Structure formats: C-alpha cells, structure tokens
Amino acid sequence: MQKIASGIFKLTFGTPEEFTPVSVLKPVTCLEALNALEDHPLPFLREDIHFQPRQGSVLLEIPLEPEEEVYGLGLQLKSFRQSGSKKKLRTNSDPSADLGDSHAPVPFYVSTAGYAILVDTARYATFFSGGCKRVGSKQDLEGFESAGTEKGHWEVKKGSGNMLVDIPAAQGVDIYVFCGGDMKDAVSRYNLFSGGGALPPMWGLGVMYRADWHADQEDVLQLARQIREDEMPCDMFGLEPGWQTNAYSCTYVWDSNRFPDETRLIQDLNDMGYRLNLWEHAYVHPDSPVFSELKPYSADSYVWDGLVPDFTQAEARKAFTDIHQPFIEAGLSGFKLDECDNGDYIGNWGFPDFARFPGGADGEQMHSLFGQLYQQTMLAPFKAADRRTYGQVRASHALAAPYPYVLYSDLYDHEDFVRGLATASFSGLLWSPEVRQTATREELLRRIGAVIFSPLAVLNCYMIPSPPWKQFDHDKNHAGEWLEDWPQLAQQCRKLLQIRMSLIPYLYAAFGRYRQQGVPPIRPLVMDYPGDSEVLDCFDQFMVGEDLMAAPVVYGNGDTRKLYLPQGRWYERLSGEWLNGGQWITRQVAEDEVPLYIKQGALIPWAEPVLCVRDDTVFNIEPVLYGAEAGECSLLCDDAVSYSMIAESLPFATIKVTQEGGLSIEEQDIISKRYRLAGVKYVPDGERG
User: In this protein, which residues make up the domain named Glycoside hydrolase family 31 TIM barrel (predicted)?
Assistant: First the structure.
C-alpha cells in the first residue's frame, strides 16, 4: 500500500497492465492542495479486499456495508443511484439501455460513507454494486427479505452485498482510495488527484449557438448578424461538418467553395463578439494533407476509410496538432470533438475491439481512453499559445476533471439529459443537456431552462437554417415560415438566456473553486446532503455553486413541479417567499421560468446581462444579501483567458457586507478591472414558511 497524498491511498493487486488511465494520461496531481486537507484513514483494512485471479480476468471484492449508497461510474443517462446495480462500463455512442454503456464510463464510484474508489483499468470492467452476494462472504446470512410473491420467492435486498469488480483480460490492477469527511470531500480529492477542475475562459460560460450544417460563409455571417439584431445572448458560434472538404472521415481542410476566406470569417465573427468553434472527429481522410505522415502511427483498422491516430505516440500527436495549428493562429476558440466513442450498436462504425495500435493498446483499451487522449492532444496547442479553450467532446473516461471539454449526446430524452447533469458530477465530468430540435415552444423553453444551469449552455441548431425562436418546426423553418408571435417567443428565450448571463461572475468563481479545490460547480443534492434520505434519488435538482439550487422542469411533465428543499431556510426567487427546508413542495411553473432557490445568508453577485463576454468586458454587479445582516462572497479576478494566470494560484477577491451595512472589498485594485459594484441590496427573511 502506498500513500499518495492526504487521504489518498494506492493499493496494488497482482500485476497491473501497462495501459491504464493513470499510466497513460499521467495526471498532474495537485499535491499541495491535497496535503492541505484533513487526513483520513482507509475505510476498511487492505486485507478486507479480496483479489481473485481467474481464467481470462481478475475479480476484486471490496467491502460495502448495507447502509452505504453508491453513485458514480461515469456519465449514466438511465440511472442515478447505482446501489444494487450491475454495470459493464463500455464506451458506446448509443447507451439506450441502463447496462453501463456510456459516452463516458468511468471505473470510479463514491459512497455515502465518505470515500471513493478509482479502479485503474481501461478494460470493460463490470461493477456489481452490492447486488451480488457471494457464498461465504460476511453477508452470507444477512440481507434476505421476502419479495412478497404468492409463491414465496426470496430475493436479496438491494445493495446488501459487497462491491464486486470483474476486469477482463487483466492479471492485476491498481486501485486508488479517496478518503474524505463526506461524499463531496471524496469527489473533490479525486478531482484534485486528476489535476484539478477545468477553468474555462469566462466567455465559455456564456451561450453557444451551433449553426445549420449546410450553411456557407455568407449564411453564417447573416445568421450571426440576425442573432445580434434579435438581442439574443451568444458568445460562441459553432460550425458543424459542412465546413470541411470531407467530413466522414475528416480532411481538416476548409471547403473553399463554401468558405472562400476563413480568416476573414473568423475576424468578422470576432468583431461581432463571437468565438468560432469547429466540429471534427479524429478519423483522418485519405485526402487529408497529414494522412501519409500519420499512417505509421495509426491503428490497423480504418473508420469511415480514415486512419485512427494512436495519440499515445508523440509522432501522431505532433502531426495531428500541426494541421490544426493554422486554425488556432487565425483566432479559432475551440473544437467540438465528435464520435470519439464507438458506434457498434447503431450504425456499426468505430474501430473493432481486436484492433491493434502501435503503442501496444488493443481496441478495447483504446476505446476507453481515446476520447481522453483526443482531448489531451487538442488542448496542447492552446496551452502553448497561452489561450484557454472550451469545447465539446463525445467521449471521456477517468481523470477528466482538468480537461475543458463538455460531454454531449445524440440521444435526446430530456429526463435522461437532466439526469446526466447529476451523474456526470460524481466522476469529474462536465455534461451539457444541449438544446436541439424541438416539437413545441414549451419543449424549446423547458430545454433552455435546463441547459442554462449546465456547464455549457448550447443551442445546437444544426438542422435548421434560422433561429428556433423564429420557428421551431423543422420544415417550416426551412421554408422561411415564421411564427406569427415569434417576437414573444424570442423574448421568452431571451429571458431564460439572460439568467445565464447574469450568473457568469458567480459561475466563474464556482469554476475557480473547481480548479483549486476540486468541488464540482454543478452537482446533485446528495453530494451536499448525503445524510438526508429524501435526496438519495433526487437527480433533477442541483446545487449551482455553494448557494443556489436550481430545479428545472423536465419537458413532458406539464407545468407542475414537485421539488425538495433540504434543511435550512431558502428564498424562492420566483415568488419572493422564504421557505423552511426539510419539506417537499409543489409549484406551478410557467414555461419560461425555472425554480431557483437561494440559501439563507448567501451574498449573490448578480450581474447585469450582456450579449457576449469580450476580453475587456466589465460586469455591472449588484450584490444581493439574502436573509442576513452580514455575509460575503468571492469573485475571480484573473484575466479570464490565459493559462499562465492559473499555473499557480487564482486571484480571488472577497466582497464582505458588515453588520453595519458597509461593503468592504479585498483586492480592490484587481476587482475593478473586471467588475463594477453597485450598493448592496438586502432581501430580509420574512415570515417562516
């Protein structure tokens, strides 16, 4: 057993494989931040973990008490609490059933007992989270109860066994145990072990609009001008596959017929306050200028007749980044890294598991880490240019916290998309329930109401040429038939997007804490209130930072929202009421509203909404103090765009409201470069509700 840092232990069983998340990704662990935390011992003895080599696999049995609840295992769209479940963690683009397939399966789980475990494997490991009891175990005579059937069948209680992890094709494995005071502490230590949370540029916390994939250069500029004329907040403008000469597989070469002057396009968009983001994937077309150079450093199988680079090889990384360097030099802000997962259920695309890579990995191992290696490769030139990026990715795995890429999916069930916000946060992942095509105005508004409280607020309108607030119907949008009351719908969309823009300074500070402390900026209630049984299955309410709780309405559930208020006092922003926690409440919620609750004692730095965040934007801030006479909050005051500013520590400034009503600001000289503060507004606590 090896102690890595305060509360973090590495345990080795058998002979681990060479190709694992830790050995390949080589995380730059935040040791100073970790060792400043309170130390905690292992939650069990090492000898309590049973390691069993088997023919073609190894089996780990890790203690799990019946009262423990288990969460995590990556991005799980179909389930939240994993106690009693069986999940085979396999990277797949169409996880339509609750079997463990995922865009981002992570062999990492966290327990309500306050610890978490990373199983350092790139194999398709199967996790039995307490639902499988073994003969001879300490629970052998515990945990049975009648199923209540007429024939008297018996079944095991949900979660009454140990954690069993079946790892194929391995002869051993390392596990890392993160011991904290509670769930949030354990997850934070894992994120710091991974390298600390991603800190996007401030403009990345605005709104992204992805355009019709058939658009040419003039179409793009006309649409960009239209969004500005409609006074719709938007920071990032995304192009889908149509910008390239070939997209399946990719050439990474502009189609000069449709985009005759890409440098001018980027400049024109920048002048309007947009940052351009380009879609691509990592399969290299034979017509790509880099095809021949990459071929010796690629897999022995093609995808869409394109090469699959082995990003564990320095030569492959260099060739791939070299062809992207001109985009970055021209001012491109980032990329959408698509289809780096695997489509062997639907569409039958992707390299096979039996593929071999020059670096020694097989297809199974590479599928697990391909998305991570792709992110790592694409991030390097931005770091070299000292310019932060923020983009999208469709596959990830363990140790993902430092990477500024947000997961998304082509699947579209709204409840699953909201659930993904909850499950991703347990495993160091960022997820966006992006808005795509909608059937009704209510669906459009409900989906926007959820995405504005996600790590990346994306309106992915790649299927329609004009904005959805003019016409959400696909065929009518293409025909140029606008809604008669489209200005009203536009105002409703604007109202929701302005909530996002008003929270940018608050969110940016939350991401700063994610970087320095590892605390997920958006997380489900159980992470903050693990002792409250009412929140164990509550996947559709989120803590946003430390003091806000959002409860978006899932489309299809009508206008009635049942939600839970944890212990304490909460201010309901829609009604202006104060409510006691520890109770369920029901609210009627208009289609352009989102229930938002604020902790008593919070000082929230509400910002005047802007259309976009430029490098020189100064936010007008109104600090609002809720239900207290004194309070404080922090604002992050770096340059908001460079990597050099986050190499050491982050310059936070603290705003304090004193009992006498005074407003004191620490680091006044740095705060004025980004924020202009008004006087404090007080929201006194009213009658007890």
Answer: 198-509
